[in-house]
Automatic annotation (TrEMBL):
Record-given protein name: Lipopolysaccharide transport protein LptA/LPS export ABC transporter protein LptC,TIGR04409
TM region positions: 50-69
Example GO molecular function: lipopolysaccharide transmembrane transporter activity
Positions with biased composition (Low complexity): 231-243
Keyword vocabulary terms for this entry: Membrane, Signal, Transmembrane, Transmembrane helix
Chain intervals for the UniProt region annotation (Disordered): 230-252, 435-459
Organic solvent tolerance-like N-terminal domain span: 254-408, 471-590
Zinc-finger found in the keyword field: no
Cellular component GO terms held in the UniProt record: cell outer membrane; outer membrane-bounded periplasmic space; plasma membrane
Pfam family, one: LptC
Residues in the signal sequence: none
Organism: Hyphomicrobium facile
The organism's place on the tree of life at top rank: Bacteria
Length: 648
């Protein structure tokens, strides 16, 4: 039986891949795989035979259609809408930016939408902005704006339209445009703004807020309203309020200026450029003004809640001092003015000091000039020092210290020693001008009756009734309620050719002599006008020819131009001496008549007037005289009913 031999390639693996044997004999498994590969190849060839010609035809058709379309022969193919990359299509919703500062502060800014600026890739346009800035002390500042532009490179935020900036300490800014440097925590604006702080309200055309340094700068058309932190009890007392010309405690202050710089660390507010401050109707103008305060313009966030647990009532600042410099002008509601080089108002001690060429003007004709004036609200006093000159119309007072008490309407003028400058005590002077009046050629009838039975001397005491009175003394005390001016200390009064010396001289007047009041008292009333004078204690009247008359007291009727001496009267002319109890001098005619009191002829006891009830008691006798014949020609003697003794 015959058998077939099959050879195989022993190196063939059992992987199932058919292949030819080394002897070119193909086993059954190898032919199956080859057949499948052949079928796939045949299919590809058939597809390509159809696809290649079809593609060539389609390409030719499209090219022909385009050519015909450009030539306007066939209908155009509708254009395809290709998307473009623009800023409107790159809008982000609810973006959030945040960062940290080197000093430990941080910030964040949110917006409803944000759009990238494709021209400036670092700029982002924001809508519906809110933000928060927090400094190293944890004080926060909040931002709200309608729109803005954030520079992601410089961390600068530009805000526009309806901007609100608020702080935990009470800062509230209303702006229309602002630039915020988030890293530096600086806010600037070159548009009109309104800032509401605990200290009050400030409006300006430009501002810079440096939150880290607690510095605030306002420029151009600055208006400030400073409200008091707390009302003072003295604010209810009108007299107390009128004691100070400005800087009254418990009263708000309004200030306009060109610039305002606030340093909330040093607690100062510095106004410059046409400063005008108004308080309770009083106005102060100066080129510069510095306000020192306590409290904080914008209290720190952590302390604000503790400092004001009851809300805004206790927030704010309390003005301590107001210092105006470089030509200060103060005006009161009634028209009174005060000018000086500087003016310092201390609301803590309730005092005020004006220094440098001080001029106080009251009404139309009252003026006081000095180097310095001190106001003390508690004592209700005004003290003017330096070379003091007080004028009221043609009347003039001169001294070195003038003190006015508002509550009593009393005034004192003196010239004390100044140890610091080495000036010794001096004297005060007064120059009074009486209203012009026609002089009476003869004494009144009652005066003629009084002079009857006396000895009448010639016209040695004649003087012009319109001549002014010049008085020199150590001190002057004026009581504007009683309408008296008391001169004390070696008083000397001169009118024309007649002088009078005494230890005291009281001038009575009508009108008002008050100087230094800051309310209605100083403005009202007519100018002071002398009515009569009263001299006491060692009175001596001297005529120009040396004729003298002495007495215990003297009265001068300014209107009638009559002088009357009383008490132990002695009239002397050269060696001639006349004694009596009463001497009447008619200064219109110059005639002096000496006589006795009506009770003197009976030898009654008389009392000289020394200004009190303790005058010298003496027995009034008939008048006596000693004349020297060689000098009688100088006198006109009426000796009716007189006892006359001549010297041997």
């Amino acid at each position: 039986m015959a058998s077939a031999a099959v050879t195989t390639d022993n190196s063939a693996t059992a992987g199932g891949h058919a292949r030819a044997s080394g002897n070119s004999i193909v086993i059954a498994g190898d032919r199956t795989q080859s057949r499948m590969a052949a079928h796939r190849h045949s299919r590809r060839v058939r597809v390509l035979k159809i696809a290649l010609p079809a593609t060539a035809v389609a390409t030719a058709v499209i090219a022909t259609a385009n050519i015909l379309g450009n030539a306007g022969i066939s209908p155009s193919i509708p254009p395809l809408e290709i998307p473009q990359i623009v800023a409107d299509n790159l809008k982000m919703h609810n973006p959030h930016y945040q960062g940290f500062n080197a000093d430990g502060g941080k910030y964040w800014v949110k917006a409803e939408t944000a759009q990238q600026d494709l021209k400036t890739l670092t700029a982002i346009h924001l809508q519906g902005i809110t933000g928060e800035l927090m400094d190293a002390k944890k004080q926060k500042t909040y931002l709200v704006a309608s729109r803005g532009l954030f520079d992601n490179n410089s961390n600068v935020l530009e805000l526009y339209d309806s901007i609100d900036v608020t702080g935990e300490g009470g800062l509230n800014a209303k702006l229309t445009r602002a630039t915020i440097k988030t890293k530096e925590n600086i806010i600037t604006s070159d548009q009109p703004s309104t800032i509401i702080m605990g200290a009050g309200t400030i409006t300006s055309n430009q501002l810079t807020i440096r939150q880290k340094a607690k510095e605030y700068t306002f420029v151009d058309n600055v208006r400030t309203y400073m409200k008091p932190k707390e009302a003072s009890a003295a604010s209810d007392n009108q007299n107390a309020q009128q004691a100070l010309p400005f800087g009254k405690p418990g009263e708000p202050v309004e200030v306009t200026s060109n610039r305002l710089d606030i340093d909330d660390v040093k607690k100062t507010a510095f106004y410059t450029g046409k400063v005008v401050a108004t308080q309770a109707g009083a106005t102060m103008t100066a080129p510069e003004m510095t306000v020192t305060y306590e409290g904080a313009v914008a209290p720190e966030g952590g302390n604000a809640a503790q400092a004001a647990p009851d809300g805004d009532a206790d927030r704010g600042t309390k003005v301590k001092q107001i210092l105006a410099t470089d030509t200060v002008v103060l005006k009161q509601p009634n028209g009174e003015t005060a000018t000086s080089h500087t003016a310092l108002f201390d609301t803590i001690s309730n005092t005020a000091v004006l220094e440098g060429d001080v001029v106080l003007t009251h009404g139309d004709d009252k003026k006081a000039v000095g180097d310095r004036v001190d106001y003390d609200q508690k004592a209700q006093t005004m003290v003017l020092t330096g070379p003091v000159v007080v004028t009221q119309g043609a009347n003039v007072l001169r001294g070195r210290r003038l003190t006015y008490h508002r509550t009593t309407s009393k005034m004192q003028l003196s010239s004390p020693a100044d140890v610091s400058s080495g000036v010794s005590a001096g004297r005060i002077t007064a120059h009074f001008v009486r209203a012009s009046a026609k002089a009476s050629p003869q004494p009144a009838d009652d005066d003629q009756d009084e002079s009857g039975g006396g000895i009448s001397f010639g016209a040695a005491f004649k003087t012009d009734s319109n001549s002014p009175y010049d008085v020199v003394s150590d001190k002057l005390d004026v009581d504007d309620v009683a309408k008296t001016a008391l001169f004390t200390g070696n008083v000397s009064a001169v009118q024309g050719n007649i002088s009078m010396r005494s230890q005291e001289l009281t001038a009575f007047y009508t009108g008002s002599a008050a100087i230094g009041a800051t309310g209605d008292k100083a403005a009202g009333g007519a100018a002071a006008s002398l009515t009569h004078l009263t001299a006491k204690k060692k009175v001596v009247v001297t005529a120009k020819d040396g004729q003298t008359a002495t007495g215990d007291w003297a009265e001068v009727d300014v209107k009638k131009n009559l002088t009357t001496l009383g008490g132990a009267v002695v009239l002397t002319q050269g060696k001639n001496i006349v004694n009596g109890t009463r001497l009447v001098i008619d200064m219109n005619t110059g005639e002096a008549t000496i006589k006795t009191e009506p009770a003197a002829t009976s030898g009654a006891l008389m009392t000289s007037r020394n200004g009190d009830a303790n005058g010298e008691v003496f027995k009034a006798e008939r008048p006596s005289a000693v004349f020297y014949p060689g000098q009688l020609k100088k006198s006109k003697i009426q000796a009716d009913n007189w006892q006359v003794r001549t010297s041997p």
